[in-house]
Structure formats: C-alpha cells, structure tokens
Amino acid sequence: MHPLHFALRLNSTIEQFRKFSTGSSYPAILDSDVEKTLIPVPDIDTQNEIVKRIKILLLERRRIIDEINKKWEDTISHTVGEISKLSFDFQNTPQVTNGLIWTKSQILERINALPKLDVEEEIDDDQIELDFEANNE
Predict the structure, then answer these.
(1) Which of 14, 32, 53, 80 has the greatest number of beta carbons closer than 10 A?
(2) What range does the domain containing 36 cover?
(3) What 3-state DSSP class applies to 128?
C-alpha cells in the first residue's frame, strides 16, 4: 500500500480536508486545497530507523516462512515414506465407480502436489535503501 494512503487517513489530514470542504449534501474539496494540505513527515533519522525496523521484520518473515516450508517438506516426505511402506489390498473392497478409491501412486501424487507456503513478493536486500539521504542526492 502506498504511504500516501496512510498520510491521507491521518486525523490531522482529515481535519484539514474538513475545513477546506464545501457543500453540505455532497461535500467536495478543490485540487488546490489538496495541494496546500500539510502532511507530517518524520525527520530523516526517524525515517531511517523505520526502514531498518521494516527490513528486520521482512528478513524475520522470510526466515519464518523458510522454516515452515522446511517443516512442511519434512512432513510430506515422512508421509510419502509411510504411505510407500503400506500395502493396499483392494480385493475385498466393493467396486466404486465414482473414483473415491485411489491407488497408492495417485495418493502419493496428490500429496506431493500440495503447495508450500509462498511469499507474495520476494524482497531483494538491495531493494531496501537504508539511507533516505542516498536517494535524495
């Protein structure tokens, strides 16, 4: 989500919009009023601290997802191994025509096709600039 989204929802911003708005049944605000709206921006040190915290959280999120996926793969591997050891005896099973009984290979195929937890968007470490001043040069 764009940072401007949050800035426009601040109480101070909404209060400025309220003061600028005209009309009672359909309140409106002019482009020129939006342009002169003041949006608070933290100092550069605070901005850098926020970015550092976000980067740490994103790295921790990636670590947790990798850990979960490793456990998932181990569980799938163990389950496939246990199923592979079983012998399936369908001779005494009544004939089913609606496909509810699967062969061992069909079961293993479906288990192996189960998806891992996915990250919506991979963040490359180089994408996060830790110093806003470097962007302003």
Answers:
(1) 80
(2) 1-41
(3) coil
